[in-house]
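Researcher: Sequence recovery benchmark, item below. Answer with residues only.
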């Protein structure tokens, strides 16, 4: 490198270092700007997102309000909060020194039901009549009297995908907005067909009823629509023109086991089909005492003669034992079996356990299973009716 090049390089380095030094001085010693106050609203997670969108009538809404004094002098602050132009509450922030920050959790309670209610936050300084900002901070909320929550009692994050035959758990609730005592009933529909009906009993004005429910989507499809309709007493028309709705994608849940247990290529194939010989649309609702029919099958891949027993349990109680004839290697056994549940209730777990050669331990640790709702007969025109899915 020539002396000239070296000289140029040294000059560039000196210039860059001088520029960086000047920048550091400017950042460290900023010029005094305009006086102002920083004002913001955060969710309870401390973020400028995930604000409450749907709230329940009469239930508190929680937020975080933040104020930072950049006025270069001490100042006192308060925040007035209004919903749709009606003052709801006042929050006293107190006195802040220059550059002092205050973040405070606040709660307010909506008193009127309605969608897209505008919640406004007005900041006042030093008891001035006019707010600091010409346009207040604001957000929108839906105040509801009929709602659906997750099983953990939270809004949003509802089940998006489930396996066919697996129960979905949610919480449904009603806040009575009627001045006189009123009873309500709720219809849960899957793709337009009534799946379940629930009654609340009589509720006083502003009394809340809430209950955890479960339902089983049986139709395998993308975005199966689940509607929740609310009715007053015996009225035929619903309370609202549109229901509370969820979309759930239901994926096939096979009841077919092909597993190789320890022992190389030796294993037993064990499966359960519906009464029509398919791996879907298993029984999902039966009347108390009505037979439940399925097809069970076994294929011997043990390279030896083997004896098998199939045990059927409902909620852990054995209801039937099926003894299978001795099967040689590659022999197949398949038979329609029926059993009866005398236990009434939702989500009865039907288990199928396989035993080999008189062993006290089941061949597979996890049984094959599905769920059934065992119900009292529905009455229509004086005749009992049972709901069944299309095959």
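Model:
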């Amino acid at each position: 490198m020539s002396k000239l090049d070296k000289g140029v390089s040294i000059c560039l380095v000196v210039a860059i270092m001088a520029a960086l030094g000047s920048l550091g001085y400017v950042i460290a010693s900023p010029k005094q700007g305009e006086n102002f106050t920083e004002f913001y609203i955060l969710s309870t997670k401390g973020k400028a997102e995930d604000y409450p969108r749907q709230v329940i009538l009469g239930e508190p809404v929680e937020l975080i309000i933040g104020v930072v004094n950049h006025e270069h002098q001490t100042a006192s602050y308060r925040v007035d909060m209004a919903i749709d132009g009606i003052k709801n509450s006042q929050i006293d922030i107190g006195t802040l020194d220059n550059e002092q920050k205050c973040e405070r959790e606040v709660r307010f309670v909506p008193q009127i039901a309605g969608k897209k209610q505008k919640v406004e936050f007005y900041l006042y300084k030093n008891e001035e009549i006019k707010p600091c900002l010409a346009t207040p901070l604001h957000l929108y909320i839906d105040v509801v009297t009929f709602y659906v929550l997750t099983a953990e009692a939270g809004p949003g994050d509802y089940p998006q995908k489930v396996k066919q035959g697996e129960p979905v758990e949610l919480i449904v609730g009603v806040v009575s907005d009627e001045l006189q005592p009123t009873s309500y009933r709720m219809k849960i529909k899957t793709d337009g067909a009534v799946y379940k009906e629930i009654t609340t009993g009589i509720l006083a004005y502003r009394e809340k009823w809430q209950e955890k429910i479960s339902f089983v989507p049986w139709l395998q499809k993308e975005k199966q629509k689940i509607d929740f309709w609310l009715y007053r007493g015996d009225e035929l028309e619903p309370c609202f023109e549109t229901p509370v709705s969820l979309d759930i994608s239901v994926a096939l849940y096979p009841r077919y086991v092909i597993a190789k247990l320890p022992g190389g290529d030796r294993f037993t194939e064990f499966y359960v089909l519906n009464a029509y010989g398919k791996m879907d649309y298993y029984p999902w609702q039966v009347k108390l005492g009505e037979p439940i029919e399925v097809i069970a099958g076994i294929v011997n891949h043990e390279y030896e003669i083997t004896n098998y027993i199939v045990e059927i349990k409902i909620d852990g109680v054995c209801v039937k034992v099926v003894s299978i004839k001795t099967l040689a290697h590659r022999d197949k056994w398949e038979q329609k079996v029926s059993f009866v549940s005398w236990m009434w209730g939702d989500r009865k777990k039907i288990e199928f356990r396989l035993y080999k050669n008189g062993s006290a331990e089941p061949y597979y640790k996890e049984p094959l299973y599905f769920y059934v709702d065992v119900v009292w007969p529905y009455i229509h025109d004086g005749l009992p009716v049972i709901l069944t899915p299309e095959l």
